[in-house]
Amino acid sequence: MDELTRGLLDFLNASPSCYHAVENLARALTGAGYHRLWEEEPWTVSEGGKYFVIRGDSSLAAFQVPRRDFRGFMIAAGHSDSPTLKLRRQAELPSAGGCLRLSVEPYGGMVMRSWLDRPLSVAGRVLVREGNGIAARLVNVDRDLVVIPSVAIHMDRNVNKGTTLDPAVDLPPLLGTGEDSGAFRRLVAETAGVPEEDIVSSELFLYPRTAATVFGAGEELISAPRLDDLQCVFGCLQGFLAAEDSGSVPVLCVFNNEEVGSATRQGADSTFLTDVLERLAGALGVTGERYQAALANSFLVSADNAHAVHPAHPEYADKKEAPVLNGGVVIKYNASQRYTTDALSDAVFRQICREAEVPVQSYSNRADLPGGSTLGNISSSHLSIPTVDIGLPQLAMHAACEVAGVRDTEALVRAMTVYFSRSFCRREGAVTI
Ligand code: ZN
Prior knowledge:
Aminopeptidase i, Domain 2, 2 domains, Aminopeptidase, alpha/beta
């Protein structure tokens, strides 16, 4: 297995929740010489300096300050969250048959049946009392802890004909046998390394215990949880770290809460990205007119995985705008602008991919299917700069384990390395990259 794929699998395995994904990004950035800035303190940045900032423990923006007057921002955005089941505050749920389950509700548009009958565990963050304050601690139980058992075919003869699953009834996972004993709360406290009474609140999620792996006759495919969107996040990070100084500010932004509509304090539909850009520009003395001109010379790549043609159901794909696994980076189009790609951003990104010698594929939903949504148009409503929606082709999107192509990660890294090494400049209507 090549080093890049190994790195992707390690990142996926080490990121069972959005909080862990952001912690791993912060660790990678710190290792590459980036320093953390804090939103609650004034920022001082120096030319050539490398920085990142985190909001809500789950969204991150990183940037490098150019050594000369900067022209604009070259931004790429992905998301840290994935569809899962979120634990309720009162987690233990005594159930029939002397069983103890955990009380959960769906987070995002998950493929529910894919979560059945497989070992799952719990990860997230707890808020812990420390003296007079409250601090966040990441937790990952990191062992096979619960299973969501399906109903036997003998009792539900329709099980292979599209049985409906009720999240309130069918999805609470089995923790063990017995009554509400407080064992789960004790386990979380023990994992966090704090006394149980010091845990004030928590955000905990289930995750599949299945490790990310490569498969296929030529080991050309990946099976892993959370490929949407950690494959794009990982690819953008590698390109970001490999890029050369362009005279523009490279910005890597990873948002939480894309799977639930982005309208949160740290989602794409928040002020997070605009706050970061304004504060960075302000720290460099670029304000007012100069800041607006810099924005007009900026570009955004919204990177979120795309649907590949399904081998059993090619009818769900458009006849021509249908990406294939290992076919390269996908540019997404939608006439209603649910994907925000327009002719200008399309042309710019195609030019980038040409320079990177990366194959480009096109994706449109079938004209009679609404399709999904992503970050691009939501970010654009806060930051009106040319934006292209891209992604890597995958199957089984939002299932507990998804499938993608090994070679596509490298294509994205190459494209993003070129992208972050360029400036987007407009002069009297003409564009140069
Ligand atoms: Zn996504």
